[in-house]
Amino acid sequence: MVVRPAIRTPGTAAQNRQAVQAVLSGHVVAAPFVKWAGGKRKLMRTILSYAPITFERYLEPFLGGGALALALGIPGMLLNDVNGDLINAYMVISEFPVALTTELDRLKALHSEEFYYFVRALNPMGMTPVEQAARFIYLNKAGFNGLYRVNRAGQFNVPFGHNPNPSLYDVMVLQAVANVVAASTVSCLPYDQFLRQNARQGDFIYLDPPYIPVSEYSDFKRYTKEQFREDDQVRLAELYTELVQLGAYPILSNSHTPMTLELYGQHKIIEVEMTRSINSVGMGRGAISEVLVLPRSDNGIQS
Ligand SMILES: C[S@@+](CC[C@H](N)C(=O)[O-])C[C@H]1O[C@@H](n2cnc3c(N)ncnc32)[C@H](O)[C@@H]1O
Predict the structure, then answer these.
(1) C or N terminus of the chain, fewer CB within 10 Å?
(2) Which of 111, 109, 114, 106 is CA-nearest to residue 130?
(3) What is the extent of the structural domain holding 67?
(4) Is the pLDDT of residue 4 over 90?
């Protein structure tokens, strides 16, 4: 039984700061229920050590596995991702947890390589939200390395992960995620539309877009069939500057590339080291340098 907070009103600035402090000292409200390429579990403390001291609301336009948002669990967060399968899964975890785990148990009982490819080939369009969410979670946990990758037609195309006994869910994790979702507003929009509709002065916004590729082998752009191309990166950098001018406090992650340094040159850039565990070609594991972009001034929100 999931107990849901009844309200989505934001916490006070002091409560928000406390939530950041709690994560910095090792306490998380909830953890991701999916493995997600570019997930920020390992970096979340580094990122939050740059959080503003006071802020009104927390916004995350590229939610993915939601490592930061779930760890914080602040009431009234505005969370968004353009991936409809992913956002449907968040909603189903919150609304229909029992039906979801029943369906996941059914899939787990049938698990094999052949069954994986059978489920992968099914068209999710005709499914109920619960069936769609179960398929999404099953493919994420039974597929190769937790990747989410689609072809140009938008079909999930990750190969079998060769784990004979994948763990599809943990009840405590799902319950904690459900509580955070119930206290948040979750949407499925392109990031720019989400930010233009919602961002305002005093917001702390964490932006974790698909990264600028560091080499021809790194291809994490295909979270969606539209991909995230160079002109998207340019538009995002422009929007970052607009958010700063608005009086919000955006922190953005990206890879350490000449293009990143050029796009964000007018802001503060901090280099951080990250060990990747998900890599599409199994290369480049080990320390990878990436950057955090911060506003140059505290924007009236003490940092
Ligand atoms: C690097 S991942 C975010 C990882 C996340 N911080 C975590 O801890 O798991 C980038 C996310 O951006 C989403 N995305 C890609 N293009 C987008 C767009 N145009 N608007 C909104 N979200 C987008 C992808 O679906 C993906 O989940």
Answers:
(1) N
(2) 106
(3) 1-303
(4) no
